[in-house]
Fold this sequence. Notes:
The protein has 249 residues and is α+β, with helices and mostly antiparallel strands. It has helices at residues 31-43, 56-62, 76-85, 89-98, 141-156, 203-215, and strands spanning 15-18, 51-55, 66-68, 99-104, 111-115, 120-122, 127-129, 133-135, 161-170, 173-184, 190-194, 197-201, 224-228.
Amino acid sequence: MQRELHVTPPTSAFSAFALEPFPNLRPGDDLAHTILRVLDQTGGPLQDEDIIVVASKVVSIAEKRYVNLATVTPTPEAEDLSARTGKPAEVIQLILDESVSYILATEQGPVIARHRLGFELTSAGVDRDGAQGAWLLPADPDSSARALRDALITFTGTDVGVVIADSDGRADRRGATCISIGSAGVAPLRITEHDGKRQEETLADMITGAAGIILGQRGRGAPVAVLRGISYEASDDGVAAMLHHSPRS
């Protein structure tokens, strides 16, 4: 049963800032403590209703979602797709393993996959790490967002929300953008109303897009941003609540 959405008060203005310089995380590092340490050094304390937007890559690092490509055995399907797209067969195999279906945006790719979590993502969110490895998405991004939000509230006593962002390309255009893959404390959808018309909007993606201007893409080095002043409804529904396809094991 879907939760009833209420009209969200409008946001007239908001501010945003990156947490930088942000250290390079190592697998298993405590992400919440790292965020708070950088805040203490650069950005000042969190405020109630702040939204912390975190790049999925650092969540994956903290959760040890690394795969050594030497442990991956490509299937004939992966070998064929590798020849067509130019991607290593081992990376293609990870994409297939993480997906329930896929298409090629052009004859040479990129691979647009429906991830088993229900997202439609370029390369199923598999992020190659040099020649030897790759990073997978967090196993349960909504759960990851809740754990991070709970830790930040415990350590600071401040009521905040968390959104996990992923860099993604689209099948119909060049370039990359940002989408949400996990959230906690922030309703992923909102209802706006004007002149008698009601509209359901993907607020979590809008938040991620705004943060993406700061987060940037590869090499930016600022994987966490704080957005302040955005009106939202508190909820732990998570991004999964707005997907058409339910996660698959």
